[in-house]
Fold this sequence. Notes:
- This protein has helices at 35-38, 68-75, 144-148, 152-156, 158-166, 180-192, 203-212, 226-233, 252-256, 282-285, 302-318, 334-341, and strands spanning 4-6, 9-11, 24-28, 40-44, 56-66, 95-102, 114-117, 127-131, 135-137, 172-174, 196-200, 218-220, 239-244, 258-266, 288-291, 325-330, 349-353.
- By secondary structure, it is α/β, with parallel strands linked by helices.
- The protein folds into two domains: 4-153 and 302-353, Medium-chain alcohol dehydrogenases, catalytic domain (Quinone Oxidoreductase, Chain A, domain 1, Alpha-Beta Complex), CATH 3.90.180.10; 158-291, Rossmann fold.
- Strands 5, 6, 7, 8, 9, 16 and 17 form a seven-stranded mixed sheet that branches. Strands 12-11-10-13-14-15 form a six-stranded parallel sheet, with helices on both faces.
- Helix 5 runs parallel beside helix 6 (180-192).
- 43% of the residues are buried.
- NADP nicotinamide-adenine-dinucleotide phosphate binds at residues 67-69, 152-153, 156, 176, 178-181, 200-202, 205, 245-246, 267-268, 270-271, 292-294, 344-345, 349.
Amino acid sequence: MMLIIIAGVSITPIINNYRDGSVMRTIAHDQHGEARQVLHLSEKQPPPAPAPAAGQVRARVLSRPIHPGDLAGVRGLPDAPQRRFATPRIPGLEGMGVVDTIGAGVRHLRPGQRVAFFPVPGAWSELLTAPADLVVPVPEGVDDETAALMLVNPLTLLRAVEDAQHSQAGPVVQTAAGSSVGRLASAAALEHGIPLVNLVRSGPGAQTLRQRFPDLPTVSTADADWRTQVRDAAGGRGAQVVLDAVGGSLTGEPAGLLDDGGTLITYGQLGSGSTPLESLVLTPRALTVRGVSIGRWMSRTPEERAEDVAFASRLAATAPELFEVAASYDLADFAKAVGHVRRPGKSGTVLLTSPAP
Length: 357
Ligand SMILES: NC(=O)c1ccc[n+]([C@@H]2O[C@H](COP(=O)([O-])OP(=O)(O)OC[C@H]3O[C@@H](n4cnc5c(N)ncnc54)[C@H](OP(=O)(O)O)[C@@H]3O)[C@@H](O)[C@H]2O)c1
């Protein structure tokens, strides 16, 4: 058993056998590195697990997304000293499954119920134990695939988009706009009347996004005059906010799209390399750079988190097309699944699945 601390709460994922005695599978790693090299599958039939403690719930996990952040967690921070972690470490914080057993005092869940969960370390195993308040019933009519990824992506930029909206009606530009998170941000921008300009890296990617969101301007950085196109689409001025998932050595590009006084929100690192802070000309242009991480979500109040979960559940029920699944792979095929996550032009999120009991 291992103890993992995330944003101030400790959660205990447990590798166990299911009560019917069937073998439970787990994907884990003992060292940081390239996912396909360090991840391994284990199949075990350990001794029966104790019932979940008060306030906890045990669930059989049926489906979980592979987020870019999960792979980054396996890789570790490239330039940072390797942090020690309890081994084997099981990746994954999000997923869906069926409640197996509930601990004392758990009122909103019952055995057999379909549930989604986040943030619960150990999602890439087939059985886990979690605090019941991090486990939510899957809304009626929402299928298993949508339920498996209904929490992280909609919540990632929710507050950032709201902040952008409150900071007085300037244009917002987002990079990697064809990503799963980017498409949710597009839907939120349309709903809130935020003047969003979408930026993608290829002509075909731009075409796909224009078909999906015909009311939002989409520009491809493959066009030589893409900066002019972005400025035109933003009404002839710089952006007030740029939502950037690319980062790395290209950070100067999105920062260069900002109006003086604007804010660069960085929330991903799809690119590579790094950019010196000085080259962003922050001081004379009075720019703000702000990091956003779903890993900080537990620091929100319980009321705010309940609101966020209600928002995500509503979106999953009313707009399931925003939760596109690129492909589903059995847990044992994790290496192929990881390869698919990195495929250029992929649309949607890759899932790792387990057979229903
Ligand atoms: N901060 C957080 O808490 C948080 C939470 C969730 C996700 N994220 C981040 O959000 C980003 C998107 O995640 P996702 O799951 O939505 O991704 P996704 O669905 O896998 O989509 C990835 C997208 O990024 C584009 N892309 C990949 N490499 C690129 C590059 N070097 N330059 C420009 N575009 C590139 C791809 O474009 P093509 O179609 O051209 O291949 C694709 O549209 C990731 O960086 C992820 O780490 C952050």
